[in-house]
Give the backbone structure.
Amino acid sequence: MTTTTLELPAPCPSILWPCPPHLRITLVTASDCSMLVSLSGELDIATAPAVKSALDFCLTLDHSRGVTLEAADLTFIDAAGLRPLIETHTLAPRRGQWLRIAPMSAALRQVMFLTRHTHRLLDCTTAGHSTRDQDLPGALWPKR
């Protein structure tokens, strides 16, 4: 009698990107040949360069089809922190890639609305989701 062993796929290694202590950036290669960038903490003028370098790194990988930014754990973001996201969103299509933001924190949603950049990143957030007004990133409160 022969026995077979089930070989599980190797887990995707994650990279903890170097950055200031009040932000954590984790990079993981997803199964669809894209990169997952997870942000937690504060994204501001001090941490924006680290986020920009991590996103640029992901776009330069030969196997990367795009970047999914997981931003649900961002506790703070200001206009300076929004800049690397807008720059990456502009650069990715030029390289034949994409940037997707899902899920998004309330802090990111609010700064997008206040800086009037909701329209720039709207296609990043609604891919595969409802486009009803109350579901859009700029809609901070549901409409009645």
Summary: Helices lie at 48-60, 79-94, 106-114, 118-125. Confidence is low (pLDDT under 50) at residues 126-144. The first strand starts at residue 14 and ends at 17. The first helix runs from residue 48 to 60.
